[in-house]
């Protein structure tokens, strides 16, 4: 095939592993991820909410690798299976607080870059510092999803 994809045995597509092809760029993304984690902690964003945002962004981007990883992380941090089961339709479920709803809507806006700009998340339940930290979280999660999807990271039982 043309481009970075190659046809393998059994018609399985694979791509260039971006982290191995340009490890210094990957390390820079890891540093950005660490900086975003610090910003989230400073802003007082609950670790379970961080995982919910990572999961929702990964759902929107179709990243199975990140979905599996962050669902496991959320469960390990005490998230419930009921909430995880409905995060894809969070606006339909009564499982989420106003702050969680605002954060999920903000993450969706950052991921989709809706035009004209939607501000359904802007209900006052997030501080300016939290809005910034969650926006950065969605931005870096989008980057991680694109690395994983483009590199076709294997996701098998």
Automatic annotation (TrEMBL):
GO terms for molecular function: peroxiredoxin activity. Residues 23-108 form the Carboxymuconolactone decarboxylase-like domain. Keywords: Oxidoreductase, Peroxidase. The keyword Oxidoreductase applies. Pfam families: CMD. It comes from the Bacteria. The keyword Cytoplasm does not apply. PANTHER family: 4-CARBOXYMUCONOLACTONE DECARBOXYLASE FAMILY PROTEIN (AFU_ORTHOLOGUE AFUA_6G11590), CYTOPLASMIC PROTEIN. This is Alkylhydroperoxidase AhpD family core domain-containing protein.
